[in-house]
Amino acid sequence: MKLEKKVALITGAAQGLGAAIAARFAGEGALVFLGDLSAGAGEITAARIQEAGGRARFLPLDVTREADWISVLAAVEEEAGRLDILVNNAGINIREPIEMMKEENLDAMLAVNVKGPFLGIKHALPLLRKSGGGSVINMSSVCGLIGHKYTTEAYTLTKGALTLLTKAVAVRYAGDNIRCNSIHPSTVDTPLVQELFKDPARKAERLGEVPLGRLAAEADVASAALFLASDEAAFLNGVALPVDGGTTAD
Ligand SMILES: NC(=O)c1ccc[n+]([C@@H]2O[C@H](COP(=O)([O-])OP(=O)(O)OC[C@H]3O[C@@H](n4cnc5c(N)ncnc54)[C@H](O)[C@@H]3O)[C@@H](O)[C@H]2O)c1
Asked: For ligand 1, is residue 182 a contact (CB within 6 Å)?
């Protein structure tokens, strides 16, 4: 078990990549706290993990609200007494090109994708430090590394900011044995993508940019997160890890 005795808080864990990461961490022995806006889906995901033999709790969290972070971290400390891993996974994408982008949509993306991880790190640091150090993982994207032609400017802006927030935290808090790394997936195979792929031109366009010739699976991203969270990655700090089949190497 790679995460035995570890305690993890994962945001946006009610569904999608966050849920996959939570299940994977729990399967490796971690106690996982699932933070999400969506209480219904979050409770169901936590219950599924428990049914599979894992230890999971749902905590309501809007990552854009500082007061939520304070109460979630207090709940983690009260129940688990420590925190070893924070995964800032919650993110949104409002797909409007820069010329069409509404100001309130830009503000919403900045709030969830940038302010959320910033506040999460701010409030998790004391508990991570008290626990003797830990691993912070920020869910960026290939768009946090390159100007991706099929992606809008606002999403790229937020994911690029997260890439450098990661490095800044990595450098400043290494002395506390707190590592901070980011993950950069290419398009992940989800029901939404399968819907888009009913258009053969779109499918060819998207698969054509991946040297390995397929979409990322949720399991690919969960494996990368598990590695960065585990002690096997003890000397990885400030790394921007692509999980993209070679897309950004092209
Ligand atoms: N799916 C992809 O192809 C892909 C590729 C690269 C990066 N990513 C990134 O991975 C992360 C997860 O993506 P996904 O596809 O699983 O997303 P998703 O939309 O399936 O799930 C996102 C989760 O975040 C939650 N959430 C949204 N706003 C929140 C808030 N303010 N506070 C707390 N929770 C909130 C939602 O309720 C949901 O449960 C995102 O940061 C996304 O940008 C996704």
From this structure: no
pLDDT greater than 90 at residue 231 = yes
Is any ligand 1 atom within 6 A of the Cβ of residue 151? Answer: no
Is 1 inside a domain boundary?
no
Active-site residue set: 155
pLDDT one-digit tens code per residue, 77-136: 999 999 999 999 999 999 999 999 999 999 999 999 999 999 999 999 999 999 999 999
134: CATH: 3.40.50.720
Report whether residue 16 contacts ligand 1, using a CB cutoff of 6 Å. Answer: yes
Domain assignment present for residue 141? The answer is: yes
What is the 106 CA–ligand 1 centroid distance (Å)? 16
Domain that holds residue 90: 7-188+218-242
Question: pLDDT digits over 2-34, tens only?
Answer: 999 999 999 999 999 999 999 999 999 999 999
CA of 175 to the centre of ligand 1 (A): 31
Domain tally for the chain?
Answer: 1
Q: Which atom of ligand 1 is nearest to the CA of 14?
A: 39
Give me 183's structure tokens: 């993950």
Percentage of the chain exceeding pLDDT 90: 95
- Let me know if residue 45 belongs to a domain: yes
Interatomic CA distance for residues 211 and 153, integer angstroms:
24
CA nearest neighbour of 181 among 195, 194, 168: 168
pTM across the whole model: 0.98
119 is a domain residue: yes
Least Cα distance to 82 among 127, 124, 125 occurs for 127
Token pair of 29 as six digits: 């022995």
Tokens of 33: 């706290």
CB 34 within 8 A of CB 18: yes
